[in-house]
Amino acid sequence: MAGLGDSLLMQQLPSLLVAVPLSFVPLLYFLEKVGVPARGAALAGMGLCLLLSFLPWVEGTELPISASPGGWGGLLGIELLLDGRARLFLPVISAGVFVSALFGTRWSQRWPLSFYTLVFLLFTGANGLLLTNDLFNAFVFVEIAGIATHALVAFRGDGDGLESAFKYLMAAAVGGILILWGIVLVFTATGTLWIPLAAERLADAPPVFVAGAAVLLASGIALKGGLVPMHAWKADGLAGAPSAVAALLSGPILTALFGFGLRILYGLFGGFPVMEGASAVTGGVEGSFGVLGSAGEVRELLRGMVFVVAVSSIVAGHVMALAQSRMKRMLAYSSIAHMGYIVVGVGAGGEAALAAALTHAITHAFMKVGWFFVCGELRRTRGTDRIAAARGAFREAPWLGGAAILFSMSLVGIPPAAGFGSKWVLVLESANAGAWGGAVAIAAGGALALPYYLRIVVRGFEPGRPRAATPVPWDSSESPSCPEPAAELAAELPEGAPPHDTTGALGVRAVAILVCAALILGGFAGYGLLFSEAFSVATELVGSVL
């Protein structure tokens, strides 16, 4: 392993991180034809991708690593760049996909080939988003992930899933159009789609073109991420998705989208409008934006707009989550609020705030995946994801209740779980940057989140249990237009009635992995932000990311 950092494997690692998951899309078909189970081959392939994602952390590896498939280079061809940003997020995405696949094997047993083929396609799009250094190929990877997403959301083929997939499709289409027009403006202003060269030429581009491209790209990413005011589709888009798919979209894929946003922000626009000392769009452009004022004034205006969007997302996400009666919709709105936390950290500027934002993005990815797994298990045993049907579920499965408590503590920001350290530093750095609204919103967010998580936990440990539908062998969802009668939910099963089947061994292992992640991230990553020695490591990491 001593010379691995300079080996041919490491030189081609960026290409392998895209090619390996993509190669499993057709490979699963041929393996099944020769008698190899698709499920086993898929899990082996995801394990290989997980191993590859950790290779950039091998001692002696020098970043960035650039690979150009076809040998044309970034100016004429495609460049894949493995930098500090990608090194940080690749293991998060790979681990999230892997544990989601472990949990999804139970309900996808009828159509494993179709399910895992789509997951690998989604995996390819997520990795490509983090690695591409070319704007048009970034759009291609966005669409690859989008195609797989729509099919996975509608995977069961029932009315609820198809409705959710249609809403997801409409939102993704509009977001893709915004991103594409932003790319068109960048190309019009610079004559290139290679991000390093485009960033250099933006310094001499008309400021209106640059500002328009920034707004369009940011709007497209915000729409796909579900930030306010483009958030209404989010809960509807996830409500009909299987739990393992909803976990993928709210955890690893949302993290990949955030990583792509950072590449656009820092790689193309030089941190505008959030980095301290940036004089204009690229950190070096001076001049006037016409009626909008000087470049510095526009920077401060857009920075204020960033905080408004972030605070609105936090408040709207938590308030809407409080009003939900179904767990998937509640978790979807919670994701909107947590994206608001992250945007506050990015908007505050400086290494401390960005370190907290990156840490919170990672902890949120794992903990939200964990909560969707809890939701999926409740869904399987009770036949519904309604909160009212969770009564007594954690008495029957204490391990599930313990996992729900730990995941809730992390998302609320209660020590010693992950999430406390990052939220605390986000509050402090937002206040130091003068964004008191963001600091107050983050602090109040935990108070707003506690009741809706506590409601499920308390209901789960209540004595008795409601009469539920027959458990299903894979995750399914009834239509929201056909709610269970209140009397049926309130009625208890007859004395001595046999409990529903518990989750399979793979599902238990998936949840156990995420419980360990909550404790590890809480003990090291989160609290590392609170102490000077560990924090210096975090800021050094952020420096490599930027």
Helices, strands, pairings?
Blueprint: H1 8-11, H2 13-33, H3 38-54, E1 65-67, H4 73-76, E2 80-82, H5 84-104, H6 112-131, H7 135-153, H8 159-190, H9 195-202, H10 207-225, H11 232-239, H12 243-250, H13 252-268, H14 295-322, H15 327-348, H16 351-382, H17 393-396, H18 398-412, H19 420-432, H20 436-461, H21 486-490, H22 505-528, H23 532-545
Antiparallel strand pairs: 1-2
Helix pairs in contact: 2-3, 2-6, 3-5, 3-6, 5-6, 5-12, 5-13, 5-16, 5-22, 5-23, 6-7, 6-13, 7-8, 8-9, 8-10, 8-11, 10-13, 11-15, 12-13, 12-16, 13-16, 14-15, 14-20, 15-16, 15-19, 15-20, 16-18, 16-19, 16-22, 16-23, 18-20, 18-22, 19-20, 22-23
How does this model look, in words?
By secondary structure, the protein is mostly helical. The chain has one domain. Helices cover 70% and strands 1% of the residues. It has 23 helices and two strands. Helix 5 packs antiparallel against helix 22 and helix 15 packs antiparallel against helix 20.
